[in-house]
Design brief:
The protein is mainly alpha-helical. It has 3 domains: 1-89, no CATH class; 104-216; 223-302, Monooxygenase (Up-down Bundle), CATH 1.20.1280. Helices cover 76% and strands 0% of the residues. α4 (124-143) runs antiparallel to α5 (146-169). It is elongated and about 105 Å long. The chain crosses the membrane at residues 121-141, 147-169, 181-199, 205-224, 236-259, 265-288.
Length: 302
């Protein structure tokens, strides 16, 4: 292959003259530049060949660097979308596990409707969970987090159904109604305080997040006294294995979701849920042989 270049001292290697030889040199690894015609003689011909070969190598280096740049750019674009994809995955994980945890109350709902009574079913967990859901719902609205809003709307509606059913079948209606009215008053006072005395912005969000975190931690830590009694008696029949599983996965998913958002008000209150669930798993494993004669937790529907 022969490449023709006219070397002119007044205009050194214009692009329109170099480009054909550049293509040829690129294909032949500069091997055919020795055939390049130059009207200024052999020295100028060698100089043209040498400069052109260096130019070709420089262009190749630039091309390689450009190719690497586009490759790195594509990697950056790929990894820049990963956090959003991970956040969406964690969001759906939180929704599924949390709704599943709230749905464990449907078992108690079925028992109340079948027996027409509330024997051995506690009312306060329904009430405190409802208050907790409404508090986190307000937090999600201020933070404009659709995941928190959706989860707590579903949770609050389920707890309201449980509360209404409990009130309908309980024999202690006066006590239950007084507890419900007290919780409603606390909720009204809290809403009035956060909406009136706190300014818009981070101050309200921070104090609301702190309040909701304290309530959530209290709910996770409250069963510890029951766990002490279980250790003493060796009977785990009062524990719900499906609820323990749901609590573990729910707390874990919310911890990772909070870490992704860098929100300590989500991470901190859900961390105790992981440890209390692990402690319950240990109790199920430790005292499983003790409860083999009675209906085991393993036979409970998941």
């Amino acid at each position: 292959m022969t490449s023709r270049i006219t070397c002119d001292r007044r205009n050194s290697f214009p692009l329109e003259q170099i480009y054909p030889a550049l293509v040829a040199a690129n294909q032949s690894q500069c091997g055919d530049l020795k055939h390049t015609d130059c009207k200024h003689g052999s020295r100028e011909k060698e100089r043209c060949s040498f400069l052109l070969c260096n130019f070709v190598q420089s262009v190749r280096a630039v091309a390689v660097q450009k190719q690497q740049y586009y490759y790195l750019q594509s990697l950056c674009e790929t990894f820049s979308t990963c956090p959003m994809d991970l956040l969406q995955l964690l969001s759906w994980t939180c929704i599924v596990f949390t709704v599943g945890m709230f749905s464990t109350g449907l078992t108690d709902l079925k028992r109340m409707r079948e027996s027409k009574s509330t024997d051995n079913i506690q009312f306060l967990p329904f009430l405190t969970t409802c208050l907790n859901n409404l508090g986190w719902l307000y937090y999600g609205i201020l933070k404009q987090d659709q995941t928190i809003i959706l989860v707590n709307v579903i949770g609050a509606l389920l707890q309201i159904v449980y509360i209404i059913t409990y009130i309908n079948y309980t024999k202690q209606k006066r006590l239950v109604m007084s507890q419900t009215l007290t919780a409603g008053a606390v909720l009204a006072v809290g809403w009035f305080y956060f909406s009136t005395f706190l300014t818009e912005g981070d101050a309200r969000l921070s104090q609301l997040g702190l309040t909701c975190s304290v309530v959530t931690v209290s709910m996770y830590m409250s069963p510890l006294t029951d766990l002490v009694n279980i250790v003493r008696s060796g009977d785990v029949q009062c524990l719900s294995f499906p609820l323990t599983v749901a609590t573990f996965f729910t707390s874990t998913s919310w911890v990772f979701y909070g870490l992704q958002l860098n929100d300590n008000y989500i991470v901190v209150p859900n961390t105790p849920g992981i440890f209390t669930s692990l402690l319950r798993f240990f109790l199920f494993w430790r005292f499983a042989s003790v409860n083999q004669s009675s209906p085991s937790y393993k036979s409970m529907p998941m």
